[in-house]
Design a protein that fits this description.
Layout (H helix, E strand, L loop, with lengths): L1 E4 L7 H10 L5 E4 L8 H16 L2 H4 L16
Parallel strand pairs: 1-2
């Protein structure tokens, strides 16, 4: 899920829109009265995304075995 404030001057909405088109299954949510830092509506959208993420069990699976750090902190390869 991409959450973007329409009034964000640092990152244009067109960039978020292009990313949402290139990223399979992406959802772009535009917060009309928010800039880069967002606001109350942005917070609600982030919480909803995190809740959905956790509900799908994705948060419990963690990184794949090939990308998990080894005991010395290096990535397995």
């Amino acid at each position: 899920m991409l959450i973007h404030g329409r009034l964000d001057m640092g990152g244009p909405l067109t960039t978020a829109w292009e990313l949402s088109r290139a990223w399979p299954d992406a959802e772009l949510h535009v917060v009309e009265q928010a800039g880069h830092l967002g606001g109350e509506e942005t917070g609600r959208l982030i919480l909803a995304a995190l809740t959905r993420f956790a509900g799908n069990g994705l948060a419990q699976n963690g990184p794949s075995e090939n990308n998990s750090p080894s005991e010395n902190g290096d990535a397995k390869g």
